## 1
Amino acid sequence: MDKQIILVGLNHRTASVDVREKFALTNVENFEQGLLAACPLREVLALSTCNRVEVLVVADGERAAGLDLADAVLHHWAMACEGPIDTLRQHTYAHRGLAAVTHLFSVAASLDSMIMGEPQILGQLKKSYRNAVERGTAHVIINRLLHKSFSVAKRVRTETAIASSAVSISYAAVELAKKIFGELSGKTAMLVGAGEMAELAATHLLSAGIDKLLICNRTYARAQELARTMHGESVFFEDMVERLPGVDIIISSTGSPTAIIRAKDIRGVLKKRRNRAMFFIDIAVPRDIDPDVNSLDNVYLYDIDDLKEVVEENMSARQHEAVKARSIVDQETEAFATWLKSLALQPTITDLLGRAEEVGQRELAKTLKRLGPVDDDTREALEVLVRSMAHKLLHEPICFLKRRTREEGSAERFIDVTRRIFNLDGDAAHPDAHLDRRSPDTEESLDCEECCPDAEPQSTPGDRVKPQ
Amino acid sequence: MGLPDVLPILIIGLYFFGTALYVLGSALRNERLKVAALSLGGAGFALHALDLGGQLLNANASPDALTSGRFLFCLLGFGILLIFLLLWWRFKMRFLAVVALPLALVFYATADATSGIKATLPPMLTGLFFLLHIGTLFASMAMLAMGAGAGAAFLHLEKRIKMKASLKKMQQDMPSLDTFDKVNHWVIVGGFPLYAIGLISGFIWAWLSSKRVFSGDPKEILALVMLVLYAYLFHQRLAYGWRGRKPAVLVIGVFLLMIVSMLGINFLVPTTFHGFKP
């Protein structure tokens, strides 16, 4: 059962924005279905975001023998986007086998993202996978591969500090505000101007717990509009300085050619607010806030360049953590390779019988302990009994699996289900695993203590089984 | 060698290693080292309390014990750790251990070195005198010590923010500028009245004992300078809303004067009332 796993894609490193725009998949569903129809593939999953397109395909080795599947995918892709195949070839990469697995794990763990460590890509990958499952284009291999990639992403986030430091300007602004004020609850922020980055910083501050947001803009209607969407209060531009005594954090991003907030204004403001600290974030170019403001006591000013410096240093820290993350990815790729090999029938039969015998031996040991001393003949007879029960019980399931391998296309599904039912790969099941497939009204405990109590019963001399 | 002989060595050892480990843990940003240091400091503090308790019990037999240099410095070191624990609990100021542990070590070691040395105090100045003069002064001094630590941390963090240092260089577990300033506020608002009560009670008892309020003692002169600075700080903070850098610097200044007064004048300058003589 030789499987081919191929991943073809382009990203922000291999393709410029216009190429990415040209070859973005606007209708992933049609693309996946069309690809399955056009090529001898078993499974397909496509992910399309503004920074990357990844097409993951799985094919049977025998069916796809002699075919260049990566090229076939590129042809279908170019056709779907109505773009030149040569351009696509020039800007794409193709990974085969375990290299494809490693690449997917790296993408899920955001090691391949434009901003390394930012978790958005994981959500996008989960969404693509859910859609592929619903459309029926993802089966055993992609199921396993994607579930594994989610757990790799989780391991990377918990075992490394790849996402611990601020690498976006708005997040850095919030972190600095926390260094000045501690808790942000009870604080008031003012947005002066309405740039996209300033809005993002204000959104971050709101989610960090600030109490009140004032929005001040030269065009009052725009301030009102923003105030509605951000649940803030609009302020006339002329009233800005008057309102400053009640404001702790000011984010400015107007298009003014000269400074709109001067140090002499802030001296008066500080007196009125009894020297309580103020934090100015100037995202405008040219700057909105007089740099002398930073020299005043209890006033802190950061402009766009200062914030970028803070962020760049953290980026290098993330690069350092990425080394650890890549070793996790390598470990998990190896584990996946082991699982892939086990999908053949013979290893599964061996594992199944091994597991049954192991359980039988464990239970026999407990029984012998309760029985007390037994002679060698009895012990041997019991061992034979346990072994033959295990083999006889598994005879029918094994025959069933053998019959399925003779049929086209269903063997690995049953083998995978068998491996999961008997937990032959020793995977730990998380309580929220497959939560998306469970309906809230059928929530029930996954605990199986009632049906298979494993704890050794408390034996008393009275209930000891007497040897016959 | 009985417990009373071993106890001071044990306490000094615990404070010493606690201090060294905490400084090392802070430099290396190693949480385990810090926890180990605080455990050692905690054990030292418990034994310190035991030592103080023993000295108080001995005071029944020999009232002079409470005027000995050993008891007074022992009490000051204990007070500093007590205030540190309060600040840790109230403001999560665990990092102040970097100030509290070495000060406790210095004052306890000084106490141990001054065994047999005692202040020449009029015998009538016991009981209430301790509560009003020594108790209040030592409490305010302990608060000053913690205020100086918070002030130094404020200046350090403020400089980093003003100079646009990277977030990585601002320690993750370090409290915010606002929290340091809050400590400064409580040190001034709580410490100044205590210091004033301690000083005024001293002058009253001086008048009662020798019909003289001010004797020109260098320690008295320095104490008055400290009182004036403290009062200025109190006034500026409450009336003019001083915050941040200025009060932080001034608290550190008053704390340094306190060190000069406690260790410099008591041992090096011949004084009338406050010197320790063998």
## 2
Amino acid sequence: MKRTLWLAMVVTVLVVASLALVGGGTFAQSKVVKIGDLGSKVGVFEGYGKQATMAIQLAVEELNAKGGVLGHKIEIITEDDDTKPGPSVRKAEKLILQDDVKLLVGAVSSGATLAVMDVTKKHKVIHWNAVSCAEFMRTTKFHKYYFSNQPDSRMQANGLAKYILDKMGKRVYIFYTDYAMGQSDGRQFKTAIEKLGGEIVGVAGAPLDTKDFSPWFGDINKTNPDVLFVAFAGTDSLRLMTQLHSFGMTKKYKMAGIDCFLLQADLPAIAEPMEGFVQLNHFSPYNPDKDMQAFNAKYKNRFGTDANITSGSYDGVKFWAAAVEKVKSFDADKVSAALEGMCLDGTHVGRQCIRKADHQVVMDMHLYRIEKGKNVPIAKIAGSDSIGEPMVGKDPVEGFSWEIKKKK
Amino acid sequence: MDYLVAILLPQLLHGLVFGAALGLLALGLTVIFGLLGVMNFAHGELYMLGAYAGIATIGLTQSFWVALIAAPLLVGALGVVTEVTTLRPLYHREPLYGLILTFGLALVFREGARQIWGGEIRRVMPPVTGSTDMLGMTYPNYRLFLLAISSMLLLAIWLFFTKTRAGILVRAAVQDAEMLDGLGVNVPRVFTFSFAGSAALAALAGLLLAPIFTVYPQMGVEMILLAFIVVILGGMGSMGGSVVAAFVIGITQSLLTLWMNPQRVAIAIFGIMILVLIVRPRGFFGREGVLE
Amino acid sequence: MRPGEYRALVVFAALAALPFVPGMSRYYLLLAFDALLFGTIAMSLDLLMGYTGLVSFGHAAFYGLGAYATAVLLERGYTSLPLCLAFSIVVVGLYAAVVAYFATARRGIYFALLTLIFAEVIYTIFRYTQTFGGSDGIQGLPDAHFWPGVPIETAMQKYYLVLGYLVFAYVVCRVLVASHFGRVLVAIRENEERARFLGYDVQRYKMVVCVISALLTGLAGAIYPMRSAFATPDLMVWTESGEFIISVMIGGIGTLVGPIIGGAFFTILRDKVSSYVDWYFIVIGLVLIFIVLVMPKGLLGIRRLFRRTVEA
């Protein structure tokens, strides 16, 4: 009887395993090439992940309408990474080893993207990051197959710090989300402000996906800064701004934030708390720039909503396709070599060029003030002014300390 | 003085608000523990379902107030069904089965909610908006409302348990269900009724906290452990103890944030809890021998 | 050799041949790695649940601590496999001794809750302080080495590593269960008072089996970063402990082999449905409820039930 039980179980396992094999086996259709779309499709950053999927879809539809790439139809495989490093690695392995994707676009959370970089490096797959902005990606973690057109923390801090000190105030409090992205933004921003002679009066980190921020407000009020700089994203930003506003703090302090702080689509819903907020963005549908307007019209025509910063993933697919066509091969080494220094027109912000040294697109950024739920452009920061020296292999945070330097 | 008003007072208020809401959640948990000897892992999911039932009702009626009545009723009804079909067969078994069973229930509820409403984070607009300026600080009206309504509910529950026959029956069942059975009381009905009440309380807490915390399928998983801690600290099965512990945790947590990063506070709370358990293994008001 | 051991040998031999099955991709080998690792953990937990009657809701902490122990060493360039395993034994062992000391003083549901709380302390510390990378954990670890010059880098090497560990853990559990010690554990499960009257120091037995189960789980954790190249706090979140319990229950409590299959089954199911629609979790939840409800009596009941249905 024990034998029967055994057999029953072994058979079950075998059946499941074989089902898995059959189900996973790709029915070889020649002339299809797969690309992976990995990121946060549900949860705190779902807005970014879903919009990135739409942008990728737009690019693939355009390419497929013209016959695909190298005569192959492009197929997108979308995976959710749970916004966590662990699952993102497993999903990246699945995309690469099982689905055999030739390009991986993602992820959203910097923590996840950094983890995925190890996988794309190991398995030699072109990896395009269009949303994450931690400073390690084009420095210590950089590898041959990694490319990005998202301004990273260093670029954002260089762009924003000067404006804040000139126009908003000298005493700044940094409130950041305590994982790769927020820590990176906080560090780079603190460095930039202190270099320009401003004073950081306080720093605090709140965990990713914090539900109630009010426990942190006591410390902010205690230090009474001129400017409250917030490095958050997604629904964290929504909750934070709603709560700051209900405690009267959006009126008390001048507020400024990072590139991915809030998506366009979320703005109207919290227009009142966001009034007067200064935000850095490389793309906005409210920017009169004709390239952005042209792209936004195309995007809106397809999906019925405005485009946003995650549309960088549209460019990622286009860049990759152009490089593949150029070298007539999907080979990652060849494609990577072709991408280095490549320029492309018709991206979501017009012409983009990839800097050879650290595979970063040199991108202009814009400062906006939010008025009645709309981004009003107030300044433009040239990409060449903010990108800084390539620091591949160098530690971008060497000598950094969170310590507050007291000014007398 | 300035420091007192501008810094200390708001923190104290945070503590009270959070403590009161936590008390609502923990109270149902501790009643069920006292009755069935089961730490209900699905309690967090009932809390989550309360918020979703609220959203559904608000969608139909455009009224938060209607939802505040409908959500606990709907989730309470689900509680009745759950109790009768799954927990009742386990009355005379070791409570460990109940523990594992409720873990399964939690899984089914959570993934069920994800199927019905999706994994997206949803927002609930507070029915009370604006902020009040008092004593030189600004405090959101909704949180004041939350404090008021939670306190009133806690008071009403206290009155129910001390002044009504039904309440006294439930308390008697918590003490000694067999004795009650001997007295000719329909004990299973008391259990079912209590479970439904506990579910309704969780649902109320879920909907009341929804405007602050937002709504998503895993919201229960994140809350339930805090509620467990409250119940254990208060003394398992002690209703008064749970309410006291909820306020103690709420206030300690918010006061500690004045001197340390709130992230460290989360660790400190566990440290305090382990100390308390070493000194008083049964929590503040725990009785000896309850299900040991 | 008894028949049961022959069968185990056959199964292990079949598993050893798995990498040579045609169509076995690197991806499936890694999936098999995860399945066997999860199975091993479920089996270690079964030592507590099935043989001693203790339900631990804190095994994720042993697993996670083991993983972090390896990750910390790998990160600093100490890539020797024996060193990583030894360090995990020390770290997990110390923590397990403390947990076991306090938790085994209480019975039933209190044991479950105390293990849960202790595990949550560990989770909170790793999640909310930046010492070990906070919520991002430790990533980008180098490959470990069997011994200097022989890295564990291919999927096949990793698979055999975990298979080797599974066999080791299985033998440990089998020997333990068959020994006098194991019979005392069963006696404790059946009637703790009687075991005490017979002169056994019940708590000491419980503590020892707790630590053994924790160490087996911790070692599984120590192996995990050698495949994944990361350790994050999510490994020790309490729902993970719940999944270990589910695996034990699905596979068949108190059978050792059942939980291995349950764990493997659970992992494969979780991985195969790769979209973000997790309806299958509802099914798993329902199966769990069903198993709890129709179990006739005692923790051994499910085994009897299985026997009866299989015989029928």
